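hi! just following up on the protien thing from before. the input was this:
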Amino acid sequence: MKNSVSQSLSISRLSVLLCLSLIGNDVFADNNSLSVDNNWWVWPLALFVVSFLIGVVGVLGGVGGGVLFVPIVSGFFPFHLDFVRGAGLLIALAGALAASPKLLKTSLADLRLVMPMAFIASISSIFGALIGLAMPANIVQICLGIAILLIVYLMYKSKESEFPRVPASDSLSNSLRIYGIYHDPAINRDVSWRVHRTIPALFLFIGIGFLAGLFGLGAGWANVPVLNLVLGAPLKLSVASSKFLLSIVDTSAVWVYINQGAVLAIIAVPSVIGVMLGSLIGVKLLAIIQSKYIRIIIIVLLFFAGLRALLKGLEI
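and the predicted 3d structure came back as:
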C-alpha cells in the first residue's frame, strides 16, 4: 500500500513537472527566473500568500482584488502577463459572484440601474480582451503601468458623496425606470433615489468595460465613481450595484481568456483561494480599522506597482 501511494505521488509530481516543462516558455515571462526542479511549488505558494494579503487589504480599502492583483503580480512575479490578467478577472468575478445574491436580496443592488450599464460594458470588455491578447506583452505592460498610475491619481482626487443631489431625472432614465427605494440599515430608514446624466454614463461604461477586458483589472475602481458622481446614485447603492455589475461584465471578458488558453490552474487556483480567504479576514478587520489609513496604503502600493509595471514593460 505504501509503495503504491509513493508511486502515485511520484507520478503526480512528474506530471506537474512535465506540464511546467512543456508550457514553461509561455507561462513565465522571464525564462531565466525559474528552473523546473524540486522547488517548482515555491511560486504558487508565494502567489497564495500575496493573494491572501491582497484580499485583506482590498476589502479594507474598498477596492476589488483584481486592481491590486494584476499590477503587483505582473510586476514582481515571473509569470506571463496574459495568465496574470486571466487570473485577475477570475478573482474579480469570484468576489462579485459571492456577494451578488445577498446584495440583490437586500435591495442594495438594483437590477434596473445595473443592466443598461452592464450590457454596454460587457460588449466592450469582449473587444478589450481580444485586443489585449493580440497585443505584444511589453506594450500591454506599459499601458497597464500608465493605467494604474492614472487610477492612483483618480483615487487620490476623488471625493465620493453619500447622497448626491439629483435635481431631476433625465428622459432616458425615466424611460428605463432607473429609480427606486432601498432600506439603509445604518440609518434605519428607506432611501428614495433617482439618476441623471444617463447617456454620458453609458459612454463612460464603454471605456470601463474595454479597460476591464484589456488589463484584467475588474472595474470596481471605476464603476463606483461613475454610478455615484456621474449618475447621482447614493454611495451605498453604487458600491453594491458595482459588485453585481462585475459579475456580468467580468464573465464576458473571462470567457475570452479561457477560450484563448490564458487561464492556467497553477496561477488561478492559489490566487482565487488566497483572495477569497483574505477577504473573510478583511471583513472581520473592517469593524476595527479605519479605512482612510488603508486607502493611503493602497494608493502607495498601486503607485509602486504601476511604476514597476511601466518599467518592466520598457525593459522587455
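The chain has a mean pLDDT of 77.
The first helix runs from residue 2 to 27.
cheers
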